[in-house]
Design brief:
The complex is a heterotrimer of chains A (about 350), B (about 350) and C (about 250). Chain A is mostly helical and about 350 residues long. Helix content of chain A is about 70%, strand content about 0%. Chain B has one domain: ABC transporter involved in vitamin B12 uptake, BtuC (Orthogonal Bundle). Chain C has a domain of about 80 residues. Chain C has 10 helices and 12 strands. In chain C, a hairpin with a 5-residue loop joins strand 1 and strand 2. Chain C starts with a strand and ends with a strand. Classes of the chains: A mainly alpha (about 350), B mainly alpha (about 350), C alpha/beta (about 250). Chains A and B meet through helix 6, helix 7, helix 14 and strand 1 of A and helix 6, strand 1, helix 7, helix 8 and helix 14 of B.
Chain lengths: ~350, ~350, ~250
């Protein structure tokens, strides 16, 4: 509902005049601006820290810039992953009217696991190489989006369309695919299995810079569409009945949003591997920080939060604990604990 | 409203109640059930004689039969019945048709317990491993029930989704631990339910699940009442917390023991009670023996399929159950969807 | 004006609604009454296009609800159901502001703000407009929702049991507000009510529904008769003349 800049939450607000902006009071507006500024500062700090900290080459030398460039690629990947996960999870929560489900459990990860495992299972160690490459990346994204689209087309259209049953069926299908992957993993040699494991745990190291040429435009297009439809998302967030009452084409818009979510999730999962609870963690923090219903204001906070969390985790684990490889798992465990704490609070779902 | 509530306790203690309880008992050994028992016996016999090793022709056939086939078949019967029954108990306690150990995180908790014991005491005897798995399964199931008691749910479909996410959290912790101790692949092998390694001398603790099955037969009605909520249970004079603890204990025992000896048997506890009530309605007491039998059938048939389709290799029963269970689960959901 | 032509909906072999033919004239309050499970709310949600009908047609102000784009209908008819839950945290004013979505698509103009303020004041919520919905009592929240559908500025307002969970004082206040909306703002209000006495006192017309069919339509004095109510509710009802009009006595 807000228009223009952050510091001016309501349109043409004159002090003291009644308005319905996304940030109800001037104080809320200042609070939001402060939070955004702090997050942005943190993001800049973490980014420059990642680029410059512990760089063995003297500042300004060619070697220094080469290492910084390598690190910059990782940062761009983190930016893309944080964007995809944050925007997808927030939008997914809104259309499902439920803040405890993460989109990642809807079969995207199981599909990823199955694709990677089959490659190693059928082609051996060479399979790991065989599934890398821009075309393979595109194919994998397309496979995931097609899976999601098939699911929505099947269960969200027709007389008996039911969103929650669609979600549960997505989760079960994911479970079935995961079982096939587990079966194949059982038959791998330990060496093959070790190679595969590295791919199956979410890690920035899984991403290749060449994928960015595809993933950045895809994520940007999906994210921009969601951003432009933020007003509609706000209405969808009021629940089906109220949304239809206000003239929203609820079913069509739900399917469109879910498809965009699936594009974002497919890009993120294909890029770095499964991250089940990262999106959940980021969305939860973002809701608290932004404290508004307006997606135009939640999205930037969520994206920045995602970047600070992921890049910050890398920076700290790499430079303080020397445990860079464990970032994916640790974020999963922190996010998972958040999830546990959240569901054990009293409330209504 | 008040009238019907004051009517309830006398109805339970009135002379009519024992009669009503006796009716299903007198009907227990009906012709269909006897036929069901005969079918079970047939399947068990089939399971005893299916396999790569020629037990009738080979010289040491009888010995192999005693070492592998008999233990394997007994394990199938015990695990099938126990997991189907614990699914049933969970559904009664939560009053939700889609809840069972693998949609509530219980199996993942049991796995975590087993993993922890394996790391702390690699040489631990089976009994210690089982205790660890049962304990964590108990904690996990309590967490799940705690969640259900705290939140007001608008839809019963959300419950299994949250349960599976809970399982994913615990799974992530297990993965982390296994990864840092280099046990990831072996963990995958243990948890993937399979009867291949069930041998004489290694499966006997599984007999403990007989206690679970018997206890469920005795206490089934109490679980139903407890499932209606603390207020209803207290109103009819039932100690709610004790019944929930008993139920959780039975579920944890069955899941923990089966996980350690056999591995996961996904969706078994979900599809069996649902299929039974599809054919027989919702009379809990007369359904119990059928849940037991169907649980045995499903596991045995899946195991035989697994032994036969890629002979001489075996597909773990869990893989077949996961695929088959997912299909049945989805069909059940589609049916529920049509009914609104 | 709302016209229903052979509207039918079936859930299973036992539960079915219709075929219903009904014309609700423009203006005033029309109350839908009837026993539990008679299909009052179902009928209302079908008029409000929240639920698809199996057969028949519904027209609101001359527009077929099945073929008219939803966003055009949102300027003509608004519907409020009993249960409204969502996860977002909203203030009263933000919620009411959503009532202008059909016109502004989320970017409120000064004119929209004006209408929002008026709706809030109309329901006496001015003091509470900055409060979050989860900080309000049930009655206040209900009023906030009604303010939202009022701000939607539609000719027709459909309300599904708005008195549910309200105490005596808040029920009377709510009906009073709705009465004023009908009289002062000229809205056509269709409301599902449980209490026939509320219906007879505040409504201009009563439409009785039983087993999925319309059994009586008429002025309150035509419905407020012992034999008619006894037949509708399958329970002995006497109608007496009270100090403020007729009263159904059934206890």
């Amino acid at each position: 509902m807000a228009e223009g800049t952050v510091t001016r939450p309501g349109p043409r607000v004159v002090a003291g005049q009644r308005h319905s902006g996304a940030l109800p009071t001037a104080r809320a507006g200042r609070r939001y601006a402060t939070i955004l500024a702090v997050l942005a500062t943190l993001a800049v700090l973490v980014a420059s820290g990642t680029l410059a900290w512990d760089n063995p080459m003297p500042f300004g030398s060619t070697g220094f810039w080469r290492i910084a460039e390598l690190r910059a690629t990782s940062l761009v990947i983190i930016v893309v992953v944080a964007f995809c996960q944050a925007i997808a999870t927030v939008s997914f929560h809104t259309v499902t009217n439920n803040r405890i489900i993460t989109p990642s459990i809807m079969g995207f990860e199981s599909l990823y696991r199955l694709v990677q495992t089959s490659a190693v299972f059928f082609l051996g160690a060479a399979g790991i190489i065989a599934v890398q490459g821009v075309w393979q990346f595109v194919l994998q994204v397309a496979l995931m989006v097609a899976f999601a689209a098939g699911l929505y087309g099947w269960l969200l259209s027709g007389k008996y369309a039911n969103l929650q049953i669609m979600l549960l069926i997505g989760v079960i299908l994911g479970g079935g695919l995961g079982a096939l992957a587990s079966f194949m993993q059982r038959l791998l040699t330990p060496t093959e299995f070790d190679l595969l494991t590295a791919r199956l745990i979410g890690s920035i190291a899984n991403a290749d810079a060449s994928y960015l040429a595809v993933s950045v435009p895809l994520a940007a297009a999906a994210g921009a569409t969601l951003w432009l439809g933020a007003g509609r998302l706000n209405v969808l967030g009021l629940g089906r009945d109220t949304a239809i009452n206000l003239g929203a084409d609820h079913r069509r818009q739900t399917i469109v949003v879910l498809l965009l979510v699936s594009v974002l999730m497919a890009v993120s999962t294909s890029l770095v591997g499964p991250m089940t609870f990262f999106g959940f963690l980021v969305a939860m923090i973002a809701y608290q920080l932004a404290d508004t219903y307006d997606h135009r204001l939640i999205f930037p906070v969520a994206w920045l939060t995602g970047f600070v969390v992921l890049a910050g985790a890398y920076f700290v684990l790499k430079n303080v604990f020397y445990a860079q490889g464990a970032v994916g798992v640790i974020i999963e465990i922190v996010g998972g604990s958040f999830f546990l704490a959240y569901i054990l609070r009293k409330g209504r779902l | 409203m008040t009238e019907s509530l004051t009517d309830l306790p006398p109805a339970v203690t009135s002379p009519a109640a024992p009669v009503r309880a006796r009716v299903p008992k007198s009907r227990l050994f009906t012709w269909p059930l006897l036929a069901g028992l005969a079918a079970t016996a047939g399947l068990v016999a089939l399971s005893l004689f299916v396999g790569v090793y020629d037990i009738l022709g080979a010289e040491d056939g009888a010995e192999m039969f005693a070492i592998t086939r008999i233990p394997r078949t007994i394990a199938l019967v015990l695990a099938g019945a126990a997991m189907a029954m614990s699914g049933m108990v969970m559904q009664q306690l939560t009053q939700n048709r889609f809840v069972e150990p693998s949609t509530a995180g219980t199996t993942e908790w049991a796995g975590l317990g087993l993993l922890l014991i394996m790391i702390v005491m690699p040489e631990a005897p089976l009994l210690v491993k089982m205790t660890g798995a049962v304990l964590t399964a108990f904690v996990g199931t309590m967490v799940f029930f705690g969640f259900l008691r705290r939140v007001t749910l608008r839809s019963s479909i959300i419950v299994p989704i949250v349960g599976m996410m809970l399982g994913a959290v615990v799974g992530a912790v297990s993965t982390f631990i296994a990864l840092s101790t280099d046990m990831l692949q072996s963990m995958g092998v243990w948890f993937l339910g399979s009867f291949t390694s069930v041998l004489q001398g290694q499966y006997e603790p599984l007999w403990a699940v007989v206690i679970v099955v018997v206890a469920v037969f005795v206490a089934a009605d109490r679980f139903t009442v407890a499932g209606l909520g603390q207020d209803v249970a207290t109103n009819v004079g039932l100690n709610y917390n004790r019944v929930v603890l008993l139920g959780t204990g039975l579920i944890a025992a069955a899941t923990g023991i089966v996980t350690v000896v056999v591995g996961n048997l996904p969706f078994l506890g979900l599809i069996v009670p649902n299929i039974v009530s599809l054919f027989r309605g919702d009379d809990l007491r007369s359904n119990l023996p059928w849940v037991c039998l169907l649980g045995i059938w499903v596991v045995t048939v899946c195991d035989i399929i697994g032994r036969v389709i890629v002979m001489p290799f075996e597909v773990p029963v869990a893989t077949i159950l996961a695929v088959l269970g997912a299909v049945v689960f989805i069909l059940l959901l589609l049916r529920a969807r049509r009914r609104g | 004006m709302i016209t229903l032509t052979s509207v039918a909906k079936s859930y299973s072999s036992e539960v079915a609604i219709g075929p219903v033919d009904l014309t609700i004239p423009a203006g005033g309050i029309t109350a839908l009454v009837g026993p539990n499970g008679a299909g009052k709310s179902t009928l209302l949600t079908m008029i409000g296009r929240l639920l698809a009908m199996d057969e028949g047609a519904i027209e609101v102000a001359g527009l077929d609800i099945a073929t008219t784009p939803s966003k055009d209908l949102a300027k003509i008819v608004s519907i409020l159901r009993q249960e409204n839950h969502f996860v977002a945290r909203l203030t009263v004013r933000q919620l009411v502001g959503f009532g202008r979505f059909p016109y502004s698509r989320g970017r409120l103009t000064l004119g929209d703000e004006e209408i929002v303020s008026r709706s809030i004041d109309f329901l006496g919520m001015g003091e509470l407009e900055g409060r979050y919905l989860d900080e309000l009592s049930g009655g206040q929240r209900q009023r906030a929702y009604v303010a939202m559908v009022l701000a939607q500025d539609t000719d027709c307002l459909l309300l599904d049991e708005p008195l549910n969970n309200l105490d005596m004082q808040h029920s009377v206040q709510m009906m009073h507000h709705l009465r004023r909306a009908a009289t002062e703002l000229g809205r056509t209000i269709v409301i599902v009510l449980h209490d026939v006495n509320f219906a007879s006192h505040y409504a201009d017309r009563i439409c009785a529904i039983k087993d999925g069919r319309i059994v009586h339509v008429g002025l309150p004095e035509e419905i407020m008769r012992g034999d008619v109510l006894t037949e509708i509710f399958d329970t002995p009802v006497d109608v007496v003349d009270g100090p403020r009009g007729r009263l159904a006595v059934y206890y």
